[in-house]
Write a structure and sequence with these properties.
188 residues; alpha+beta; two-stranded antiparallel sheet; 3 helices; 7 strands; 35% helix; 48% strand; globular
Length: 188
C-alpha cells in the first residue's frame, strides 16, 4: 500500500509540473520570435539606410543584431537583446548586450546595432566567449527615429564591421563607453 501511495503522489506531482514546463517552453518560443522579428526589421532599416549592407551581410560568415535602450546623464547605461546568425548553418544564438558610459552626455535613446563578421573564427569567438569592448566615444542626435548622420560604422578589428542606427530619442555629448555581449542562457 505504501508503494502505491508513493506512486500516486509522484504522478500527481508530475501532472502539476507538465503545464508549468509547457508554459515555460511557450514563453521561450514567444521571446525568441520577438527577437527574430526585431532582427528582421532592423536589417531592413539598415538596408534602407545603406543598401550596400545587404550584400555585405549575405557574404559574411555571420552577423549579430541588437536593439538597446539607454539613459544617460554624466554616467549612463543601456541594455538590450539580440541574436547572432550563422550564415553557414542558418542558426541563431540569442544574446544580451550591456553598455556603460561616462562623460559629458545627457539623453534617452533606443538604438539598433549590426555587427558583421567576415571570418568564421571571429564569429565563433563572439558566440562562444562573448565580447568585452571598451573605450569608444561618439556624439549624435536623433528625434523620432531621424538621426543626425543615420548609420555610424566602425570596426572591432579587420574581421568585423559595426553599424548603429538611433531609433528614437535624443542623445548628445561625448563619452567613453564599454560594451559587453554574452549568450542568453534562458533562450538558447
Amino acid at each position: 500500500m505504501r508503494l502505491h501511495s508513493m506512486l500516486v503522489a509522484g504522478l500527481v506531482a508530475f501532472s502539476f509540473m507538465i503545464p508549468g514546463a509547457l508554459a515555460a517552453d511557450a514563453d521561450k518560443a514567444k521571446k525568441q520570435a520577438e527577437i527574430q522579428k526585431m532582427a528582421r526589421e532592423a536589417l531592413q532599416e539598415f538596408y534602407k539606410t545603406e543598401p550596400k549592407l545587404k550584400e555585405e551581410v549575405e557574404k559574411a560568415a555571420g552577423y549579430a543584431v541588437f536593439s538597446t535602450f539607454g539613459l544617460s546623464f554624466i554616467v549612463g547605461g543601456s541594455g538590450g537583446k539580440g541574436l547572432a546568425h550563422d550564415n553557414k548553418t542558418n542558426t541563431d544564438t540569442y544574446m544580451h548586450q550591456a553598455q556603460a558610459s561616462a562623460g559629458v552626455q545627457a539623453g534617452i535613446a533606443q538604438s539598433r546595432t549590426l555587427i558583421v563578421f567576415k571570418s568564421p573564427a571571429t564569429f565563433k569567438s563572439f558566440i562562444d566567449t562573448g565580447w568585452d569592448v571598451g573605450a569608444g566615444g561618439g556624439a549624435g542626435a536623433a528625434v523620432q527615429g531621424k538621426g543626425a548622420g543615420g548609420t555610424a560604422g566602425g570596426t572591432f578589428g579587420s574581421d568585423t564591421s559595426v553599424y548603429t542606427l538611433t531609433r528614437t530619442g535624443l542623445q548628445a555629448g561625448f563619452g567613453v563607453a564599454g560594451s559587453k555581449f554574452w549568450k542568453d542562457k534562458e533562450l538558447n
